[in-house]
Design goal:
The complex is a heterodimer.
Chain A: E1 22-23, E2 52-54, E3 63-65, E4 93-94, H1 96-119, H2 125-129, H3 140-149, H4 167-175, H5 184-189, H6 199-205, H7 221-224, H8 238-245, H9 248-251, H10 271-274, H11 287-292, H12 307-310, H13 325-329, H14 351-359, H15 361-371, H16 377-392, H17 395-404, E5 435-437, E6 443-445, H18 490-496
Helix pairs in contact in A: 15-16
Chain B: H1 2-29, H2 36-59, H3 68-89, H4 98-129, H5 140-156, H6 163-178, H7 183-187, H8 192-207, H9 210-266
Helix pairs in contact in B: 1-3, 2-3, 2-9, 4-9, 5-6, 5-9, 6-9, 8-9
Classes of the chains: A mainly alpha, B mainly alpha.
Chain lengths: ~525, ~270
């Protein structure tokens, strides 16, 4: 025989076989049988011997002989040829190995059943499989209704094609995915921001990317907008913006080719400063005089004129409403053209209205007399016109003086007051406006241009800056000319909007990628 | 021992180098590689399959696949590395959603049970070596049966003539010899039960006759042997039981991983 032989003292009776699945039921009593149970856990115990029939010549019946090893037993075989001693059978015991196998099979069965139940077509499937909470915009009843309007599945299937089918759909979609699931080379070579098939699903509701630059490279929606990250979709990070703006190659086509990473760092100075732009408005206004001038009277309530009196926020508080003459200026500048008649003032806002007013001056005086309940209206009108003629001569002179005169050419240098009975002496439209003469000699007033938003590509919200004073950003008290653009420089903003300042300084804080705004979900029907 | 140390050192160095390399790749490629999660996922799946193959290797001893000891070392260090890969795959974030949390929990349980098993296999054999000779786990029931028979013979057999010892045996030693005892106490290295029994036997010894004292001494020796047997059983069973968590959950983890694979590609941006 080849191979190692058992040692002479090897106890084959009590040899333990830990790699077998069953042990003899008598093993715990130290009397395990030699053969042990079979592979299926059945006892293989047999009788002590297998009797042999001895037949002598001529005999037909014969005699059964005991063949027990170690000597025949006393009783001998039974008449039917079976051993007289019954087999010492046991109930084989499964080993730990069998139990481990059974538990393994149970775990596999439970895992498969769980997945079939939850990942099949159960009502919990979407929630169970979702890798994170969806944003408000892409969940809930409103989204479901809009998705249904656009013929989309209100669940996962609205964005994921695999969501429209069961587990077989997952596998089919996975096998058709691009890059292919087994193509490791393509997976490694995929570039950030590359448009993917799912973008088409986004565009089913969001019509058009509407990017802020027409020549911006096509970027996958998911590159900037990460879903499954909570009920509020996370704001776009600087990393998304820097994908283009931080890349010198991409930005080489920009004019100027500026690479930007951080606002406080390499973000360029605002263009109105670098290009030395000026306010194109032709209206003449001296901020410094109005805020600090000693001749500026107090307002009717006794308060000092300040920024907030003229610059009022809009309903949202984000921007300032355009300054209106009626609400901000007339309190001091009443357009009183007749020094003797403070209650009669010129209209504002239209050259033709002013001209018509002057042409109907007798009627205007008569209306005033009626309003003031003067008994002798004609006499009142006559006296007023006489007094006015004494100052300006004729109607043409009056009109020319109203439109073209300014403080230096007007009758009085006191052009604004709220004190005394006589409020303001009107110096002429040209005191504030640019007034030109047409070929026919008529006055032409250049309309003021007051932009509502100065930095058109940026967002701003005054309400969020209520904690600081106006002067911290707008140096109005030193501005003497309308041409001054009273916006802060980048450095002023970066005082707070920087890592050192501690206030958010991300690109999205001021800028939006989609212009002017990403179209909202639109129902197709 | 020298070989074991060399293997340990080699394994640790390889693990540290692989971990450092993986973390470097994570820091450099995670932010800029869109297919990062897919690639790390494939790497993790490959490692998991290699780890699982160790179990299959034990069932195929006839194949020339190297010795089991080397496979075990590879299994241990690859298992540790799989945890690094897992964390890198998750970008060091907690998973979200029922399915992913279940998948991560399964991985944690399989890894955790593996670390427990490693700890047990390093600590418990040393403790076993301090308590008697080698005892084959499968033979413990037979040995316990032999001890019980011997104790019964001493206390209640035809030669026994002490009612006090017989009463003590029936009252205190029958439950003790009936089966395995004090699993948790043996794991905790507590000898309270055997100390109490031996103290009571000591009382019998002091008050007994000369013949009774000899019997009590023999019973005390059997009690000590039985306690040692229970100790071996408790520790050896622990060495086997952790596999009842480690192996079944491994297959559960592989099933969940297969679905995870279909899900991440089926629900990816490039799915069509």
């Amino acid at each position: 025989m080849n191979g190692p032989q058992p040692a002479p003292d090897f106890d084959a009776q009590n040899y333990s076989r830990p790699n077998q699945n069953w042990t003899c039921g008598h093993a715990c009593e130290g009397r395990a049988c030699r053969s042990g149970p079979d592979a299926w856990g059945r006892c293989q115990a047999t009788t002590e011997c297998r009797p042999v029939l001895d037949l002598k010549p001529g005999e037909t019946k014969g005699r059964w002989r005991c063949t027990r090893s170690g000597g025949a037993c006393e009783s001998g075989p039974l008449p039917d040829g079976t051993c007289c001693r019954p087999p010492f059978r046991c109930s084989p015991v499964p080993t730990l190995r069998v139990w481990r196998g059974r538990i393994t099979l149970a775990v596999i069965a439970v895992a498969l059943a769980t997945l079939l139940l939850l990942a099949g077509n159960s009502p919990f499937r979407d929630r169970f499989l979702s890798p994170g909470e969806l944003s408000h915009a892409h969940s809930g009843q409103i989204f479901a209704a809009l998705a249904a309007t656009n013929g989309l599945n209100p669940g996962c299937g609205a964005c994921h094609i695999a969501g429209n089918a069961g587990p077989h759909g997952f596998v089919q979609a996975a096998l058709r995915a691009e890059p292919a699931m087994f193509d490791l080379k393509a997976l490694a070579a995929a570039q950030p921001g590359e448009p993917v098939a799912m973008d088409a699903d986004c565009l089913k509701c969001h019509a058009g990317r509407n990017v802020h630059q027409a020549n911006a490279p096509a970027i996958s929606c998911t590159f900037c907008h990460a879903e499954h990250a909570g009920m509020v979709m996370a704001a776009t990070t600087d990393a998304s913006c820097n994908f283009c703006h931080g890349n010198p190659v991409t930005m080489a086509v920009a004019r100027p080719p500026t690479v930007i990473h951080h606002f406080a760092g390499d973000h360029p100075q605002f263009r109105f400063i670098t290009e030395k732009q000026s306010d194109p408005d032709t209206l003449k206004f001296n901020h410094a005089l109005h805020l600090t001038g000693s001749t500026i009277p107090k307002l009717p309530g006794g308060t000092k004129l300040d920024c907030a009196y003229c610059h009022q926020p809009d309903a949202a508080g984000a921007f300032m409403r355009p300054v209106k003459f009626e609400t901000s200026c007339r309190v001091c500048h009443s357009l009183q053209f007749d020094p003797e008649t403070p209650l009669l003032t010129l209209p504002h806002g239209s050259r033709s209205a002013v001209a018509a007013f002057l042409h109907s001056l007798p009627k205007q005086y008569a209306d005033l007399a009626a309003r003031e309940q003067v008994a002798d209206v004609d006499g009142f009108v006559r006296s007023k016109l006489t007094a006015l003629q004494a100052q300006v001569g004729n109607g043409e002179d009056l009109e020319a003086r109203v439109f073209f005169s300014n403080a230096t050419t007007g009758p009085d240098r006191q052009v604004g007051t709220v004190s005394g009975a006589s409020r303001a002496i009107f110096p002429g439209c040209a005191y504030c406006h640019e007034v030109k003469a047409t070929a026919a000699g008529l006055a032409q007033i250049t309309p003021p241009v007051i932009p509502e938003h100065w930095l058109a590509h940026a967002k701003f919200n005054h309400a969020k800056h209520a904690g600081i004073t106006c002067a911290q950003c707008h140096d109005a008290s030193h501005s003497h000319a309308t041409a001054d653009i009273l916006l802060p420089a980048k450095e002023t903003c970066a005082t707070c909007h920087s890592p050192a300042g501690g206030v958010n300084d991300t690109c999205a804080e001021c800028h939006t990628y989609h212009k002017p705004q990403m179209p909202q979900i639109a129902a197709r029907d | 021992m020298k070989r074991f140390r060399r293997q340990t050192l080699t394994g640790l160095v390889a693990l540290l180098l692989a971990t450092a390399g993986t973390l470097w790749l994570y820091a450099h490629y995670c932010p800029r590689l869109p297919g990062y999660a897919f690639l790390t996922g494939w790497a993790l799946l490959t490692v998991m399959l290699l780890l699982t193959f160790y179990n299959a290797r034990k069932k195929l001893p006839f194949l020339p696949l190297g010795n089991s000891e080397t496979w075990l070392q590879i299994h241990i260090y690859l298992g540790c590395f799989s945890v690094v890969l897992f964390l890198v795959h998750l970008k060091f974030h907690l998973p979200h959603g029922g399915f992913e949390i279940t998948l991560a929990a399964l991985f944690a349980l399989v890894s955790g049970s593996g670390f427990f098993g490693l700890f047990f296999s390093r600590v418990l054999p040393r403790r076993l070596a301090t308590r008697g000779g080698e005892v084959i786990f499968e033979k413990i029931p037979a040995l316990r049966h032999g001890l019980r028979t011997a104790a019964e013979e001493l206390a209640l057999g035809p030669t026994a003539k002490s009612p006090a010892i017989g009463e003590f045996y029936l009252r205190r030693l029958v439950p003790f010899f009936a089966g395995p005892r004090d699993f948790w106490r043996h794991l905790a290295e507590s000898r309270r039960t055997v100390t109490a029994l031996l103290a009571e036997l000591d009382d019998l010894h002091r008050t007994g006759s000369e013949a009774e004292r000899a019997t009590v001494d023999q019973l005390a020796a059997l009690v000590r042997q039985k306690d040692g047997l229970d100790y071996h059983r408790a520790l050896q069973l622990t060495l086997k039981l952790w596999l009842f968590v480690h192996i079944p959950l491994t297959y559960g983890l592989l099933i969940f991983t297969a679905l995870h694979l279909a899900l991440v590609f089926g629900f990816s941006g490039g799915a069509r």
